[in-house]
Amino acid sequence: MRVEHERLGRDGSVCWLYAVRDSTQRPYPVPPAAAAVRDYDVRFKKVLHIVRCPTGNVAALSTHRRETLAFAARALALPPPPTEDAGPLSSQFDRSLFRLPPRPAGAARKRRDRWLAFLADLWLGWNARGERYADARTRIEDDLSGAALCDLVELGIDGDGAERICSSSADSTTGALDSAKTLTRMWSHWVVSRGDFSPQRCLRGACADGPKTPHHRKHANVSWADLSAALGGRKLERVAAVARRYGYGADGGCGGG
């Protein structure tokens, strides 16, 4: 199958933005994702909801451009991102460190707590929206094979019930790349280029500097204690309840419960 990152492949897309429809008033903030569906009324026949633990996902969200976070907030009818922010030309890592400074005190701590509360709202809201449409859900930390992911949404066989249209083989190039983590790294390094997918390029080293974890962005660290201090009360309970339902630990960590 040809499924591309933040654009439409022949068989689908991996794009969290597509959980909502864009419009002229609220365009997708990633140009390839917007261009791919412009002038088309796109509907996906199968939707797989891929979730991540709250501490890891909140930390990763802190790297996104302000326009992207504002788009998500508008789509969920949430307040906009906190006003105190890094400059528009800041790198992903610098944005993350400004919003979530390590060992903060005084004004910096208040800024971090405001950002943690906002990003936790995004984690809750976007996952809730995904659940409304998804045919199945999986955790990115489980590193399922591509074939297993397809089985979750019943894409294991063709229309006649005979031939597999989404499979893996340890003896093939596809099999060598058949894992959620590897595919994430490949997409992150734009191995999909102009609609031509080249697994050989990845095997030659285009993904060699990919991370050992499911997310490639360098960002500030977030602990459950950080979320507890920033959220407290009912919002923290909501995050913990959703995390448990997704199979994470009671402290919102990336391990099992």
| Beta-strand share of residues | 5-15%
Q: Give the overall shape.
A: globular
Per DSSP, the total helix count is 11
Mean pLDDT equals 77
The largest sheet is: 2 strands, parallel
Helix content: 40-55%
The radius of gyration computed from the alpha-carbon positions, rounded to a whole number of angstroms, is 19 Å
Strands in their spatial order, largest beta sheet: 1-2
**CA(first)-CA(last) distance:** 33 Å
Poorly predicted runs of 5 or more residues: 161-165, 167-179, 185-215
How many beta strands in the DSSP annotation?
6
What is the H/E string? EEHEHHHHEHHHEEHHH
Task: Please identify the structural class as seen in this structure.
Answer: mainly alpha
Explain this structure to me?
There is one protein chain. The protein is mainly alpha-helical. Helices cover 42% and strands 7% of the residues. The protein contains eleven helices and six strands. Strands 1-2 form a two-stranded parallel ribbon. A two-stranded parallel sheet has the order 3-4. Strands 5-6 form a two-stranded antiparallel sheet. Helix 5 crosses helix 10 (224-230). The longest helix is centred in the middle third of the chain and has 27 residues, at 107-133. It starts with a strand and ends in a 12-residue tail after the last helix.
